[in-house]
Amino acid sequence: MSPKYKEVRDWVLTQIRLGNYALGDTLPTERELMKRFNVSRNPVQKAMTELAASGYVVRNRRQGTTVASTGMKIDLFKPLSSEVGAAEVGHTHQVVSAKACEASLPHPGGRLSEAKTRPVAEIERIKIDDLGRPLVYERALIDLSVAPNILNEHLEDMVTFSYLKSKSKSDLVARTEVTAKLAMEKIAKLLEIEVGDAVIQTRRYIENSSGSTIELSEYYFHPYYVHLEVNQIG
Length: 234
Description:
Blueprint: H1 4-17, H2 30-37, H3 41-53, E1 57-60, E2 64-67, E3 72-75, H4 77-80, E4 92-104, E5 117-128, E6 134-143, H5 160-167, E7 173-182, H6 185-191, E8 198-207, E9 213-221, E10 226-229
Parallel strand pairs: 3-10
Antiparallel strand pairs: 1-2, 4-5, 5-6, 6-9, 7-8, 8-9
Helix pairs in contact: 1-3, 2-3
């Protein structure tokens, strides 16, 4: 069972992410939160202090606590562009696993079963925010002939597109497919959501100048902690 202050903090964050409280809106008072969660003042104050330190809220004795940020935003248009890398979320990575194996790296729109297998690095990571909450689950398959030493690198801080660009002798192109999925057991566990919850999945292909796929990455975005948007280009 999670500490009481985390229950309060997570509830407030969820309400903000769901749009129940917009930027500038006043949040429930400490007394109201104490009553809702049947707790003393200390857990409520600790929860709001963490949210304030992370930039989500602003506390003011006279005006109360107001929403200062609705959380992580990702422009879905950018990963759809062939000139950019990935929907890099920032914050920190937590490596779930990293190993060498055999796998297929198909072209965009192709099936894994249709491509020949080759030695790849399989890297699984969770992107977490400064409160330790999971934002994105990432699974990357990277051609070991292009990046033979990648598993020896510091994977917690690595942006794979930039790394591959530094190792490749040709220009790289990134293409991204976006779809909706229902979270299977593994994804649900890593993102701390329920099995069957709807999530957005992006699948990114990085190709070299000869059209060969050298990386295939899948990203699963937390349905509440990440806002996905498309910004119009003028």
